[in-house]
Amino acid sequence: MVEIDEVWKRYGRQWILRELSLRVKSGEVVALLGPNGVGKTTLLRVIATLIRPQRGVVRLFGKSSKRIEKERGWINLVANPPAFYRHLNGQENLRQSLALAGKKSADEAIYRAMEEMQLPPDRPVSAYSSGMRKRLALARALLLQPRLLLLDEPETALDSNGRDKLIDVIDQVARRGAVVLATHDRGFAETVASRKVQMRGRV
Amino acid sequence: MRSWVLALRDLRLELRGRAGLLSAFSFIAVVLFIMGIAFGPDDANLRRAGPGALWVALAFAGSMLASRAWAIEVENETLDDLLLTPGSREWIYAGKMLFLWILMLLMGLFLLVLVAAWFQLPLERWPQLLVTLLLGGTGYTAVSAFYAGLTVRLRARDVLLYLLVFPLILPVVLAAVKATIGIAFGADFAEVVSWWKLLGVFDVVYLTLCYLLFPAVIEG
């Protein structure tokens, strides 16, 4: 599903990823572990095709990452913190995400996802707490049904109930695809990941 | 279809936030007030300055709105989500351009009324003024939406936007001013049409180039 071969990525003069290779198969939940600044978020963004590495090959779903257009919709990245339009409410944000992804925007499905994540549908996102935004991002992931879910420090700001829902979403996606997550929490990685990868600038 | 969804969503966000619209309308009021003082109170002078005042105000306020079209994504950190949508990315440009185009036309209409009242711009040939606004506004938004997208990730994007956009839109603004002068001061219809043709060519060239080049420039 994800094939990364000898990828190099730098910002300015500093190399963040050096000769990094990684394979993620369907059904796997891979946890990227490592200290701050080691390149976990950069690697997630490379996989999401949001940034291009200076060297190396990235293949997704069996195709070069430069040639995926339709398949880009199979990827969902939950950033830390997750991004939403603050002046829109949770429901409107989800409706927009579905419409822009070219998917049918079923109000009932959106309502169910919001209810499952215990979120108020009419409150603007600017009034959401960090944990609620994380839950909204999980609701979006549920609705978009990605084959590859990328999570950047997903457990932060979530209470125990939120963590349970996060684990549930990870399980659901892993059944039809794969999950790559970056975390500092070794205990959380032990709970959810089928494989842990320790990053030191290279894997 | 997705372009319309994006444009309508941006309009809704802009109407709820109002930051861009308020600053653009305040800017227009200040420009017209200063130019009115500078060229008035002589009626003939004011009438001569009217078409220039209209397009100067529209061009600068348009750049502010172009920057705003992309600032929505920067402020909400949602650019990545847009880029992760499936399919080629031309539709993102089309959506942002549509958003800007609608705002520019609304602002242009508002400006026409203001300039007609303040600078005594004659509105007898108003359908021709609307065509000029439409053609000039299209060329302007095609270029400014493109460059605003190109500079969206840069820290000095607002300064760069003016530097990049104005040399390119100068022919559009000049042709639009000339057409407006012709309409206001009773020039032959054929002369006005010749400026429209020029504007039409710029519109087609800029729209086509910007639409095709956009996916390459928005890559991270």
Structure, explained:
The complex is a heterodimer of chains A (203) and B (220). Chain A is α/β, with parallel strands linked by helices and 203 residues long. Chain A has one domain (27-55, 70-198): P-loop containing nucleotide triphosphate hydrolases (Rossmann fold), CATH 3.40.50. Chain A contains 6 helices and 9 strands, in the order βββαβββαααβαβαβ. In chain A, the strands form 2 sheets. A 5-stranded parallel beta sheet of chain A has the order 6-7-8-3-9, sandwiched between helices. In chain A, strands 2-1-4-5 form a 4-stranded antiparallel beta sheet, with helices on one face. The two termini of chain A are 17 Å apart. The relative contact order of chain A is 0.21. Chain B has 220 residues and is an all-alpha fold. Chain B has one domain (2-217). Chain B has helices at residues 2-17, 19-39, 43-76, 79-83, 90-118, 126-150, 157-184, 189-217. Classes of the chains: A alpha/beta (203), B mainly alpha (220). Chains A and B meet through β6 and α2 of A and α1, α3 and α4 of B.
Structural class of chain B comes to mainly alpha
Over all CA atoms, what is the radius of gyration of chain B?
A: 18 Å
Q: What is the first-to-last residue Cα distance of chain B?
A: 25 Å
Order of helices and strands of chain A: EEEHEEEHHHEHEHE
Q: Give the domain tally of chain A.
A: 1
User: What percent of the residues of chain B sit in helical stretches (DSSP H or I)?
Assistant: over 70%
Oligomer: heterodimer
Biggest chain pair interface: A-B, 28 and 24 residues
How are the strands of the largest sheet of chain A arranged?
6-7-8-3-9
| Percentage of residues in DSSP E strands of chain B | under 5%
Structural class of chain A: alpha/beta
Q: What's the number of helices of chain B?
A: 8
The CATH architecture name of chain A reads 3-Layer(aba) Sandwich
What is the gyration radius of chain A calculated from CA atoms? 17 Å
pLDDT under 50 segments of chain B (min length 5)? Answer: none
- Could you report the average pLDDT of chain A, rounded to the nearest whole number? 89
End-to-end distance of chain A: 17 Å
